Amino acid sequence: MSDLVLSDGTEINFDFYKITRREWRGLFDKGEDDAVSDEKVARVCGLTFEKFDNLPYPDFRLLMRTFWEKARD
């Protein structure tokens, strides 16, 4: 069962083993480039950076809300 299904039918399964502690901490560094942070999130989501970067805004919002919920749990 997937964690999330995007509007185009893409199933997302978050895999937090795809990010290191150091990379995780970088997500909270205001000096980190947005593209670097986005690549990390895309990797955890099982998406390419290009697919992640081109998500429709409603899908992006749903994905990020679910990402942070899963990260918290």
How does this model look, in words?
The chain is mainly alpha-helical and 73 residues long. The protein is built from four helices and two strands. It has helices at residues 21-26, 34-45, 49-53, 57-72, and strands at 4-5, 11-12. A hairpin with a 5-residue loop joins strand 1 (4-5) and strand 2 (11-12). The protein is globular, with a radius of gyration of 12 Å.
Keywords:
globular, two-stranded antiparallel sheet, 73 residues, mainly alpha
Taking the sheet with the most strands, its summary is: 2 strands, antiparallel
Q: Care to count the β-strands? A: 2
- Order of adjacent strands in the largest pleated sheet: 1-2
Total helical elements: 4
The helix/strand order is EEHHHH
Distance between the termini: 17 Å
The class by helix and strand makeup works out as mainly alpha
Query: Averaging pLDDT over every residue, what do you get?
Result: 96
* CA radius of gyration: 12 Å
Globally, the shape reads globular
The level of helicity is 40-55%
Residue stretches low in confidence (pLDDT < 50, at least 5 long) are: none
